[in-house]
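> call design_seq(struct)
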């Protein structure tokens, strides 16, 4: 008698989380997230992760929080337009990727916390080149998420 591999349960995906930061790579990640959501008849949630320089600027009063929120919303609307030909529901939120009060708050932890809060079944994370501008928030977060996510994950 030969041993057969154990049967695996089919993947059940109801919510796909995709972190974005305004970069071209994050737009690509949303496109992949929508494709996965179409396959599994799931929803997509895009979390706009605000970078360290912007968070500090807001806290120091150098940047206006409302303007930052408007910029994030404008980007999300552009993303929605780019995937508008699908039936996939796309929701969004914004989160500070850093905190001057919590040492453990960084983009990777924010992504995983958001995934847990939303009970996301799948994560699509943009894996930006390490040579990119330091303003790209998700460049270093991808590795953290790859290491610690409990959900299935696609890095693009």
């Amino acid at each position: 008698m030969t041993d057969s591999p154990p049967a695996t349960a089919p993947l059940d995906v109801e919510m796909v989380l995709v972190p974005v930061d305004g970069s071209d790579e994050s737009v690509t990640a949303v496109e992949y997230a929508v494709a996965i959501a179409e396959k599994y008849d799931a929803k997509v949630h895009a979390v706009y992760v605000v970078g360290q320089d912007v968070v500090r600027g807001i806290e120091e009063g150098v940047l206006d929080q409302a303007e930052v929120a408007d910029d994030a919303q404008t980007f999300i609307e552009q993303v929605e337009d780019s995937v508008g030909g699908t039936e996939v529901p796309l929701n969004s939120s914004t989160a500070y990727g850093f905190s001057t009060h919590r040492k453990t708050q960084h983009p990777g932890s924010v992504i995983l916390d958001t995934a847990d809060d939303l009970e996301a079944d799948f994560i699509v994370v943009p894996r930006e080149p390490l040579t990119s501008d330091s303003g790209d928030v998700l460049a270093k977060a991808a590795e953290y998420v790859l290491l610690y996510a409990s959900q299935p994950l696609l890095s693009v």
